[in-house]
Task: structure prediction
Amino acid sequence: MTAVDERGIAKFFEEFEPPEGIKAELLRGEIVMMATPDLVHNRIVADVVDQIPRKRWERLQVTDVDIIDETSEPIPDLVVVERGVAPDSGRLLPSQLVTMVVEVVSKTSVQRDYEIKRSIYAAGEVPAYLIVDPIMAQCVLLTRPVGKGENADYQRQQITKFGAPLPLEDLELELDTSEFGTYLNVRPHRYP
Result:
């Protein structure tokens, strides 16, 4: 894809209105649409939000993250930003202001969450990327982003099974995963 094409798709995406009940993200020049998530998914996001202190952190849902040098505007399930750092308004939140993003794996987002978004968030230098996986009953915390573009990745990966506490050093807290639900009758996958 040429630079002109990338600017064109970014402009198109800016004005794109997905159908009601559909979330659309721009991931490396491709528009990806997703249906409304499962209740298990929504409850996990709510549980994580409840555990992050509001006085110190903004816990933003349905917020587009602007990834520098990428034709990507992912919409994480949760974006955590230090209070007072984010702009007062606007559609895009620059990735360099983000402390942590959270993605809850859905039945159809496994590869996107574990591969594509991992690389995108690392390229955007997001310090912590938490993948909460109700298929495998585990959390994967990725930290220390390095690299550029599709070669970007996280140097550190910590896997925590649901039920065990998960230290989130960047937020200076420990996440209780004991009430995270799982999907029923879903085949296990091979990630991370």
In short: DSSP finds three helices and twelve strands in the chain. The first strand starts at residue 22 and ends at 27.
